[in-house]
Amino acid sequence: MAKSGDYEIPPQVIVLDATAQLKALMSIIRGKTTQRGDFIFYSDRVIRLLVEEALNHLPFVEKEVITPTGAKYDGLGFKGQICGVSIMRAGEAMEQGLRDCCRSVRIGKILIQRDEETAMPQLYYAKLPPDISKRFCLLLDPMLATGGSANKAIEVLLDHGVPEENILFVNLICAPEGIEKMLAVYPKIKIVTAEIDAGLDENKYIIPGLGDFGW
Ligand code: URA
């Protein structure tokens, strides 16, 4: 089984290849002194890589096309339609990366906040494509820390009829705690991430992380 540090990466987790390019991009966005403009530009680069990778994990069907030469090409086509759902607000930063790869893609939004009395994540707002149950769903959130909001968002998607196996959680940085919490409840989901970090600090920030993704 593949490992990130001491952490055994579960089979449902797809981690981008740790190329020198990806490491360089992550070093910029993680850097304490990185300016906002660079943070946005380079996190967009990583988001684009993540979306491209996530699309590789959707089902395809064989598709034959005739090229302008009149010859046959044995190709592939996407099986089914997709949509994006961003977990507000940080997840909204990932919407453009999805639009750049998928023309006219439908994108929904979910707002979850911690209830001040119960400390439990609570759904405040959801606007989802009406036919979401028939689509593969890319759930967008850049930081997976405790997994509380992400699990609540998945619950909302399931309540709207999306099959668990049709959900791909797309994210920049995961904490092992968040992965474990998500997969314990939703083992059929796939997680596509750029890097898995060591863990969480006492304030539930990912370490080493990048601080507040705050957009
Ligand atoms: N959200 C963030 O923006 N950063 C973290 O480290 C955890 C959650």
Automatic annotation (TrEMBL):
Residues 19-214 form the Phosphoribosyltransferase domain. Its EC number is 2.4.2.9. SUPFAM superfamilies: PRTase-like. One of its GO terms (biological process) is pyrimidine-containing compound salvage. GO terms for molecular function: GTP binding; uracil phosphoribosyltransferase activity. InterPro entries: PRTase-like, PRTase_dom. Keywords: Allosteric enzyme, Glycosyltransferase, GTP-binding, Nucleotide-binding, Transferase. It comes from the Eukaryota. Pfam families: UPRTase. Pathway: Pyrimidine metabolism; UMP biosynthesis via salvage pathway; UMP from uracil: step 1/1. Belongs to the UPRTase family. This is uracil phosphoribosyltransferase. It comes from Powellomyces hirtus.
